[in-house]
Design goal:
globular, 5 strands, 2 helices, alpha+beta, 5-stranded antiparallel sheet
Amino acid sequence: MASSDSVVSFGWELHFEDGHSDKFYRFIVVTGDEPIVLGLHGSRGGNGQLGLVHTQITVAEALSAAVKRSRDKEKKGYAPSRDFTVFDLPAGLADPGSARSNAHRIAQHFGKHARETGTELGNASRIPGSDR
């Protein structure tokens, strides 16, 4: 349960491997007064790069943006590697003005909670720093 020191967030991850590529796309939505949607993508086991950032939107718009991109990736052959995971994010990381600089730390919290709650699947990409 989120407290005033945390913000309810959720995320999921897709994976693609075809013999030439082995990559992930991670989706995270931070709720609260100022919602954020993040999309990180890259090679398996790496931090990835930030490819999707939306702020100054509603939670519904944030979810819609993430789902739209997720469906686009699934059409290209990406498959789930972390199922939908709800997690409490420390409020200090939920500032939209710092979304870009906090993206990898936010992903670490997502990865840790996915592992702890059993939503991390066997093909999940390692999230550096999520084992702390």
